[in-house]
Write a structure and sequence with these properties.
The chain is mostly helical. The chain contains 14 helices and two strands. Helix content is 71%, strand content 3%.
Amino acid sequence: MPWAFEYEYEYENGDVNENENVNEDVNENGNVNGNGNGNGNGNEEDEEDELTMDIEDFVREREPNWARLEKLLATADASPEWELGLPRIREIVLLYRQACSDLNQARSYTANPEVLGRLNHVTGRGYRFVYQGAARGSFRTAARRFFTVEAPAAFRSERGAIAVAAGLFVLGAVIAFGAVVGRRATAEALVPREFFTASPRERVAAIEEGDERIRRFEEAGVFGASLFTHNIKVSFLAFSLGALTLAGGGWILFYNGMVLGAVAALYWLDGVQLFFLAWVGPHGALELPAIMFAGAAGLIAGRALLTPGDLARPAALRRVFPTIWRILATSALLLVVAGLIEGSFSQFSSKTVPYAVKIAVAVALFGTMATYLVFRPLARRRAGDA
């Protein structure tokens, strides 16, 4: 952690046990060189008594601290910085210093490879946490940590809000689909007028019988850029209304679900539902969840702003801000990828890419995204990793 080192000075000035005078020089492999005076500075007889000290008693007395340090370091490896918190960072630094002292003392008492090996290992991990935090600040390392730990952790911590956002969207789609299937004219009140320039069946026939709409990479890039720019605006609207009013964000999600459900029903009524799945599926597998995620981020912000509970509003917002920005950043990335897919792959007719292939791609994209963000266990770095 870049900030772990900032709090190191607190333990340089007396927060460590006063009976321990440690001058450690720890390298990356956990080897400690220096002067460890421990608790004994007496005469030769006292030193001999120390050397005959029962190593089992020493381990039994100090082992809880070593186990606690190992547990905290494992948590630090697997958790975002904002979840670790300053109290645990301070505790790690203190326990690390104590472990260094224990290693110096243990070398005087025993040559037991199990005891010394464990202490070397835990102090080496502590060294990397305390003194190499700055190395973690590189862009590559920060990006890797964001994608492997921080973003999935943010989504997992707010599964409830994401479920609410997804539920509102799906509910709108189901209601509109049923309404249009029951009475086709209902679609005119839900779908933009531009959609009715041709029936779904006529539109599918024109696409399948004509030339491919995207023939060059440059065309796909321009078209995709316009699409994900529009989708980001929709997502920002869902976030903003959710953050300011809660109900407004819920309504945007519900309404967009209704539009999708109504359009799907029209394709269903015209018997071209397979084309609809193959057309919307590849990009929709990422685009639609991204909009729901942005809406969920708005609900999280709105909850903190409007119902902060025992916290003051600024404190409540600060508490949820790291989660919100990680969800929004992930949503924006998903929308960019979805726009590129929509501007290219989704536009191909069955002459170029069979419907089954496009639907299979959609299922694979959605499954991968859901597993990565919601269901897969968080990545844990190995003890020896920097």
